[in-house]
Amino acid sequence: EVQLVESGGGLVQPGRSLRLSCVASGFTFDDYVMHWVRQAPGKGLEWVSCINWNSNTIGYADSVKGRFTISRDNAKNSLYLQMNSLRAEDMALYYCAKGGDFVLEPFDYWGQGTLVTVSS
Amino acid sequence: QSALTQPASVSGSPGQSITISCTGTSSDVGSYNLVSWYQHHPGKAPKLMTFEVSNRPSGVSNRFSGSKSGNTASLTISGLQAEDEADYYCCSYAGSSAWVFGGGTKLTVL
Fold this sequence. Notes:
Chain A has strands spanning 3-7, 10-12, 18-25, 34-39, 45-51, 58-60, 68-73, 78-83, 92-98, 109-110, 114-118. Chain A has 120 residues and is mostly beta strands. Chain B is built from no helices and nine strands. Chain B has strands at 9-12, 18-23, 35-40, 47-50, 64-69, 72-77, 86-95, 98-101, 105-109. The interface between A and B is medium-sized, with 27 and 28 residues.
């Protein structure tokens, strides 16, 4: 059974940093693209970032480019999102999602999310 | 990367069919047959319902079907059931290893 478990969320002040983690199980992690998707309170889903199996292909939403960095550690079956210079508009539930073999494939499994609150 | 445009809400009675539209641009929906639809019940993980415009993952009911014309994609749900009540999001590849979601549509089964 595919499982994705996010962690690292919490309360952080504007301008500060936070690092999210996602531990994967139930599939061969280093075969697949991984994504971060977020949902702000009362809002819709927003794609944030993706990374392919060997970290050679990485994409970011314009809204986070230059502030967020996605990475992965295949030996630990783990995906990360380093979030710097956080803003109020970054407050959201952050989901980790499994993609396909390539970046062009959809997100077929999702975690339950970790909540990031940005407030002074 | 502007969000795709979906109606905020749609509704239908059990047994009826509904269609949710998703309008993008020539840079996303219009350029790629890589539109997917996700069902999201609040408090649960989103679920992939269709991908590559009209394909269904294993286990998804054939009551769910996707299509596309130009810059607009659509999801049709036939034979509406109470458990279909949820939020639905379209998503399109937008080039340069980026994806874009629609604003979401709340489906109410009357």
